[in-house]
Amino acid sequence: MKIMKKASLHKLIAGAAVMTMAGTAITLGGGAMTAGAASKVTISVAYAANTTFDTTPLGTTWWGQVKKEFEAKYPNVTVKLVAVQGGEPDFLTKLALLYHTASTAPTLAQFPSTEIALYASTDYLMPMNKYLATTSWFKEYPKVIQNEGLIKGNIYAVSSGENNVGLYYDKAILTKAGIKLPWQPKNWQDIITAAQAIKKAEPKVIPLWLNAGTAAGPNGAGYGILNMLAGSSTPTIQTSSGKMVVSSPGILQALNFYHTVFADGLGAPTSQLFSPNNAPNIPSTDFFKGTLGIAVSANFIGGNWTKQVSFPYWAQASTAMGVAGLPTASGKGYASTLSGWDYGISSGASAAQATAAENFMNIAQQSTNLIDAGNWAGWVPPVQTDWTVPLYTNFAAPFNEEFGKLLPYSTELPSSSNYNVWVQGMEQVSGTIAQTPSTTGAQAMATLKQYVTNQLGPSEVTTLP
Amino acid sequence: MTTHMDTNPGNPPELETSADGSPVLPPENRPTQSTALRSLTTNTVLGGIGLLFVAPMLWLLLASVDSHASWGIEWPHFSLINFKHVLTGSLLHSLFNSVILAVISTAIASIAGVFAAYSFSRRKIPFKGPLLLFILFSSGVPLTIMVIPVYEIFARFGFLSLFPTAVFLSVTSLPFEVYLMKNFIDAVPIDFEEAARMEQASTLQILRRVIVPLAMPGIAAAAIFGFVNAWGSFIVPLILISSNSQQPAPIALYTFLTLPKVEFGNIAAYSLVFCIPVFVLYAASARLFREGFVLGGGVKG
Amino acid sequence: MTAILSDAAAAPHVGDLWKTRHDKTRFQWSSVALLTPAFGLLAVLFLIPMGYAVYLGLTNLTLVGPTAIKWGYTGTQNLVRMKSDTEFWTSLWTTGFFIAGSIVGVVVIGYGLASLLMRARPWMRIIVGGIVVIAWMMPAVTAGMTWYASTTGGGTFGTLTGLHSTNFLDNAPLLIVTLANIWSMTGFCMLVMGAALRNIPSEAIEAAVVENASPWQRFRLIVLPLMRPTIIAVVLLVALLSLANFSLIYIMTQGGPGTATNILPLYSYEQAFTFNNLAYGALIGNVMVIIASIFGVLYVRIAARS
Questions:
Q1: How far is CA B40 from each of CA A45, B24, B148, rounded to the nearest angstrom?
Q2: Which of the four pLDDT bands, split at 50, 70 and 90, describes residue B298?
Q3: For residue C271, what is the DSSP state?
């Protein structure tokens, strides 16, 4: 009996010892080693395996390419690539969990720009001002992209690529509907008129693709309704004091636009819009099949039709499709949201690790790699001069070039934990309109107001007159 | 999680069965015209329900052997390529992780469970009633609420990996296992133990030589329950395992759904492969019982 | 496993919960040693987290943001928030519907199958019984995937009903996930009820037949009372398992569309990991424990009366 007691106790102790050793091993393996030029440094690099690059293999290829180049140049540094699986909401959850523990926090991570303020406010990120001043490429960023990671004087994250939004249209379908090409609508009414004409001429075709619903994660709204908001009379989402705008003429305009589109049967079916299989990418398949007329979509759609991405491969895309800027409601200029994927260095990194991470970024941001990333992940490269480089423009001609031209008209999306809730609310009400088109803009906005106020509290929200 | 379980006081009288297993009815109750009609209705209704139940499974079977699968059920282009795809690389590794997770969890829970169940069954324990109630209660607590505090604790100690997760999973099936095993041990006659004790056997030897062999059906059933519990666990590894290479199969399966390009055939094949150990184990557990996996009242064993 | 439950169901006594063996009257210290592994594990990985969950529910801990590092006790702040949180009350209602629907479906269909299968041909018993049991055996993840495939646009349901492009899942999400839940639990209920039905003495049925009792009377006066403990036990189990259901619904709808299928476990996950409010998510979890306890207490009360 005593033997047995010892046996079970031993088992527990042994188990605990193994667990502690395993935990320590993980810590030591992925964490800091004392700095010494000759000693080995290990850094971990976390990225989204399935949702950053257009296809998972392309992502693996790109990161492998950069890692190889880096390790050749810096042989005393080991790079551990952490490819986080899952859709975008799952990636964000996982990354937050990784950052939460010091031992698993990635030295370098790539995440959506909308998360920057969140991570910065939790002290997860290290300011990079000094480092960026030494690089040659940061100066070439347009000011709005430079400021993407700027919070209270510190730059916590730097862009590796940007997404902006515009209009895609199928030339053949628009011609059949009697619309003159090249098509450039002047205001929102023009878009609706064109969609109605398409519906009349081609009843089997979806006239207008507008992202709606929560399935695509926080970026879904960025490729959808937030562009209408950006082009409305009051585009403000978050005031300078950090309050979320839950009621404004601009929000009403955007929601009313959605209501008009879906109530007239001009929108896409919810089975496509709510698909968990990366709904924002569906237009590229629909256009290829000839079942979609116009889409409000992000720049990566163009890249989907290339051979490398093949989602699906459409050799005639460049002649069959046209690109137009998304007009504002009133007709003055274009509007689009701007959001990117940025690098951030963990605040818990040692000096040696931070230097290694910076060197890694230098290689990743070097022109060829940067443009490759842009092509394969569907980004506009943040370096202005790259927008006219043949490697970029020839990849998905003419789409890449067109979206490069539209980039200066884009406005950056906010980044805060309040924003996450607000955008969830926005996506929910846009989804409600798509599913129940009789919902008016005013009703949707009332729901948005109630939802966000309920979640954040009245002191965090405001309305604009 | 289940009811007050009592020992079996003896089988109640049953209808005699004929050779094919159907009950032999006394002459007054032999089928007549109306009972024949009722039998037809019964079998039709059952057939209908059966079809309804099998409908969702059709996709699983058809798409897994279809090289051009989609969400719909269609006559497949027969091919085993989907199975080839999923039984390689990281997907196979995820299955392997699942095995490790489930085996460790089962081992811990079963061993701890047998000790505890024996103790509850044979020994005088102070506060036995409240303790057993506590065990009953803890098996009913929804797992999802435990994940957040356990995550916080594990994060603090750096336990966000496979082995600690397995230990936690063992705790989640422990209460039900103890309960199940206790009832089987209750049913073991005390005489064998008394005989062993007269021969100066230690408790450990009694457990090994007497209790475990005799209560084996119950212990095996409990172990199988624990295994299946850990095998199918989704939210626990989702939150508690931070490393990509240690993710078990359910997470890999879920990831399929979120990829831009949906690999329908692979999803079906992987789901099917994932189910197989569960089916095998339940079939094995059916053999362990003399009462058998009673399919609604007729088939034995 | 099922035999045990059936026998227990046939002869219920709440007092047997702590049935003691009369051969052992002295307390032995070795008993403590025997209990140590199980209770040690339970104490560390169950009691402590549960206590921590209760505490966390009253703090402002978040996953990311300033209060991820500097967080502390905030008293009743979260409780006040919960009271005015319409999402929470909606989720509560959705959970209620889900549990109630599951109970009704499982018990009715399970009993129906059990009693019909008793009278069916052997091969029918094996096939239909087998299918239903296989549905029960399937891990939740696979069941969720299968039902997603079947009810999405162009899936099995569409093909079978001819409504090819209808997305059943998005049009009636709560109904579909409830059906999926019933599908995955009926097998177990069928087995348990089948075993309990077998235990009903045939003399009682025969006596009723002799007295010209109608089938409905036979059911109401003989079968139902004898089955009562089994039914109550099954209801409790279905209620608890449905309350805790996460994977099945998460795989199928992730709580959506909107919040249509956001039962408590999913809402708790959403608050904790999508909105980063770990503390509020923990509080919702605590509410779930309270609900589970209420079920448990109700069960003990009702079962004791028989």
A1: 66, 19, 53
A2: very low
A3: I
Within 8 A of B112 by CB-CB distance, chain A residues are: 8
C-alpha B248/C-alpha B96 separation (Å) is 7
Q: CA B198, CA B192: separation in Å to the nearest integer? A: 10
Mutate to test the interface with C, among B141, B227, B257 (most CBs of C within 10 A): B141
pLDDT the model gives residue B34: 65
Binding partners of C (≥3 Cβ pairs within 8 A): A, B
C167 has a chain A CB within 8 A of its CB:
yes
How confident is the model over A55-83, as a mean pLDDT?
90
C39 and chain A in contact, CB less than 8 A: no
Is the separation of the CB atoms in C4 and B3 below 8 Å? no
B71 interaction partners in chain C (CB closer than 8 Å): 149, 152-155
Interface of A with B (CB under 8 A): 1, 3-4, 7-8, 11, 15, 18-20, 22-24, 26-27, 49-51, 54-56, 82-87, 90, 94, 97-98, 100-101, 103-104, 276-278, 281, 311
SS3 A336: strand
Query: In 3D, which of C224, C184, C174 has the Cα closest to residue C200?
Result: C224
Beta carbons of C250 and B143 less than 8 angstroms apart: no
Q: Residue A128's closest CA among A112, A95, A151?
A: A151
Q: Give the pairing of strands A158-163 and A321-324.
A: unpaired
Q: Confirm if A338 and A413 have CB atoms less than 8 A apart.
A: yes
Among A437, A452, A450, A451, CA closest to A257: A437
pLDDT digits (tens, 9 = 90+) for B232-283: 888 899 888 877 788 899 988 888 777 767 778 888 889 889 988 888 888 8
Closest CA to C285 of A98, A457, B152: B152
For residue A118, give the nearest of C64, C87, C165 by CB distance: C64
Residues in C 53-112 with any Cβ partner in B closer than 8 A: 53, 56, 61, 109, 112
Q: Is B277 on the interface with A (CB under 8 A)?
A: no
Q: Is A163 helix (H, G, I), strand (E, B) or coil?
A: strand
Taking alpha carbons only, the member of A11, A295, A37, A15 closest to residue A173 is A295
Rounded to two decimals, the ipTM of the complex is 0.75
Strand partners for A323: A168
Is residue C21 within a helix (H) or strand (E), and if so which, with residue range?
Answer: none
Distance from C-alpha of A367 to C-alpha of A353, rounded to nearest angstrom: 24
The reported pTM is: 0.79
* Direct distance between the N- and C-terminal alpha carbons of chain B, in angstroms, rounded to an integer: 25
d(CA C231, CA C238): 10
**Token match 């002459």: residue?**
B27
Are B142 and C289 within 8 A, CB to CB? yes
- Distance, CA of C109 to CA of A315 (rounded, Å): 55
Q: Which residues fall within 8 angstroms of residue A364, CB to CB, at 6 or more apart?
A: A66, A160, A343, A370, A373
Q: Which of B71, B119, B175 sits opposite C34 (nearest CB)?
A: B119
Verify whether the Cβ–Cβ distance A122 to C64 is below 8 Å: yes
Cα A302 to Cα A296: distance, rounded to the nearest angstrom = 13
* CB neighbour class for B99 (10 Å; exposed up to 12, middle 13-18, buried from 19): middle
Q: Can you read off the two tokens belonging to residue A253?
A: 């305009």
Tokens of A85: 């699986």
Pure H helices in A151-281: 171-176, 188-201, 218-222, 225-230, 249-263, 270-273
Tell me the angle at which helices B128-140 and B162-186 cross, rounded to the nearest 10 degrees: 130
Structure tokens, A319: 């002649």
CA distances A97 to A94, A119, A219, A410, C276, Å, are 5, 12, 20, 32, 10
